[in-house]
């Protein structure tokens, strides 16, 4: 099989069984990857900017992967602009610790977090919206009759690469169907017996949007471990809470952990109501988890 010298650049939008689908302008090429990537411990993934050569059978070979601006490990994706964190107001009820872990990972990875509260026609998201907008995070509330909010979100993520993720059963795929009916995503009802949804998304694919950009629907899950995305060390965690940043350098102790120290500017802000207490509670819980990370994982990182 001979390949032309002509090289094209595109985005990897799907991979199945060692075959990579690369979107180049208005065409998608089935590609294989050169063995050299394996030798360099490089695993091309969805979102990667790839350079390909076209072979005489119309297929392509990935010859180079351009530098990533960010990446997540599970599910493997690269070069995300936004992480759309979908959380229902009920059925299942919101888990704020889980949501705050999502936000922390997004901040750590330099990905913009956007929260979407679903099922607002059943239960209002006003209190939650106020909480997270106070933290400086974009929030959308969407129910059955929220076409305006859906259109605003569609416009917001146009021309960018966004991944939709969240706890199983919160309505990620239903939301995608409502925003982009042409995608034809399958949905599943919530299993009331288990209190969570069935996993309807089997793998990660990037869907090209009519107005530009891509979206991804990621596999649902009912638990979240930040170490599966990356290891956030305890000394790096505070930076992942953007509302803490104005108080850095104002604590009594230079090595303040912002968990329980006297003279901590962050804790004082919490007590004044300038920082939401639930967010600080999540931070303390995550800090304790990070404090227990074994030494070998530090070294691996």
Fold and architecture overview:
The chain has three domains: 64 residues, OB fold (Dihydrolipoamide Acetyltransferase, E2P) (Beta Barrel); 146 residues, Rossmann fold; 70 residues, Ribonucleotide Reductase Protein R1, domain 1 (Orthogonal Bundle). Helices cover 26% and strands 26% of the residues. It has a six-stranded mixed β-sheet with strand order 10-9-8-11-15-14, sandwiched between helices. A five-stranded mixed β-barrel has the order 1-2-3-5-4. A two-stranded antiparallel sheet has the order 6-7. About 8% of the residues have low confidence. The chain has nine helices and 15 strands. With 301 residues, it is α/β, with parallel strands linked by helices.
Layout of secondary structure:
Layout lengths: L2 E14 L2 E6 L2 E7 L2 H4 L9 E7 L4 E6 L5 E2 L4 E2 L3 E7 L7 H13 L3 E7 L7 H9 L3 E5 L4 H10 L4 E5 L6 H8 L10 E2 L4 E2 L8 E3 L5 E4 L16 H4 L27 H8 L4 H15 L3 H6 L1
Parallel strand pairs: 3-5, 8-9, 8-11, 9-10, 11-15
Antiparallel strand pairs: 1-2, 1-4, 2-3, 4-5, 6-7, 12-13, 14-15
Helix pairs in contact: 2-8
């Amino acid at each position: 099989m001979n390949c032309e010298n002509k090289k094209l650049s595109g985005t990897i939008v799907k991979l199945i069984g060692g075959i990579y689908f690369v979107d180049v302008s208005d065409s998608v090429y089935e590609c294989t990857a050169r063995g050299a990537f394996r030798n360099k411990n490089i695993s091309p993934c969805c979102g990667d900017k790839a350079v390909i050569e076209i072979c005489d059978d119309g297929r392509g070979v990935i010859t180079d992967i351009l530098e990533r601006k960010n990446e997540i490990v599970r599910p493997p994706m690269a070069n995300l602009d936004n992480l759309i964190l979908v959380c229902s107001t009920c059925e299942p009820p919101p888990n704020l610790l889980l949501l705050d872990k999502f936000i922390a990972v997004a901040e750590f990875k330099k990905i913009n977090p956007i929260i979407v509260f679903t099922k607002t026609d059943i239960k209002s998201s006003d209190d939650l919206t106020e909480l997270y907008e106070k933290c400086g995070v974009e929030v959308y509330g969407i129910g059955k009759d929220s076409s305006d909010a859906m259109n605003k979100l569609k416009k917001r993520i146009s021309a960018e690469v966004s991944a939709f993720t969240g706890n199983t059963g919160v309505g990620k795929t239903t939301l995608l169907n409502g925003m982009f009916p042409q995608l034809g995503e399958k949905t599943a009802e919530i299993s009331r017996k288990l209190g969570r949804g069935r996993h309807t998304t089997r793998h990660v694919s990037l869907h090209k949007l009519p107005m530009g950009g891509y979206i991804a629907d990621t596999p649902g899950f009912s638990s979240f471990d930040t170490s599966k995305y990356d290891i956030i060390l305890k000394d790096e965690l505070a930076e992942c809470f953007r509302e803490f940043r104005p108080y850095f350098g104002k604590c009594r102790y230079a090595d303040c952990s912002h968990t329980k120290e006297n003279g901590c500017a962050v804790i004082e802000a919490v007590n004044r109501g300038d920082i939401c207490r639930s967010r600080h509670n999540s931070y303390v819980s995550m800090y304790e988890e990070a404090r227990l990370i074994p030494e070998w994982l530090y070294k691996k990182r």
